[in-house]
Amino acid sequence: MPKEIKKITKVKTPAVKKAVVKKDIKKVEVKAVSKVIETPKVEVSHTKIAKYFNKDLMISPRKLRLLADNIRKLSPVDALARLKFTNTKSARIMIKALQNVIADAKNNFNLDTNTLKFDLLKVDEGLKMKRMDKAHGSRFARGLIQKRHSRLIIHVKGNQK
Question: For the CA atoms of the chain, what is the radius of gyration?
């Protein structure tokens, strides 16, 4: 028996437009009400950054990093007070650097010293001076003595007065 195949087609119905009946419309006066919302004035304190950079300090980076890691979490003013009681060469170098950057922030950028924080405190390796020492002979890195230097970068940020 042959099977009959039926085709189903969709019949599109024409769209019916609805007629809109006009009614008597009364004009209503609309007054625009403008409401001014006052926002409270908030003093915006601008943060600025004072920078210190010295690329040729005659101390090894390791000795300076040991000290820098301890004072990084403090504020620069507190770190300066703590460093004055530390009797090392790295502390004396760091005291001069911190005094310099705090004075720069205070006088040149008008920053409040109570709001100062370390943004960056970084100790990198600088130049190396190498010299031969025949007393070591062929051992100990072929008699080379390296004098290491440090590079110190301090960024301090705070709010303006």
Answer: 38
Q: DSSP letters of 37-73? A: PPPPP-PPPPEEEEEEEEEEESS-HHHHHHHHHHHTT
Name the CATH topology of 47-159. Ribosomal Protein L22; Chain A (3.90.470)
Alpha-carbon 96 to chain mean position: 24
Burial of 57 (0-12, 13-18, 19+ CB in 10 A): buried
Q: What is the pLDDT of residues 13-67, one digit of tens each?
A: 555 555 555 556 556 565 666 666 676 765 656 789 999 999 999 999 999 999 9
Check residue 51 and give left, alpha or beta (phi > 0: left; psi -120 to 50: alpha): beta
pLDDT band at 6 (very low <50, low <70, confident <90, very high): low
Rounded average pLDDT over 56-81: 95
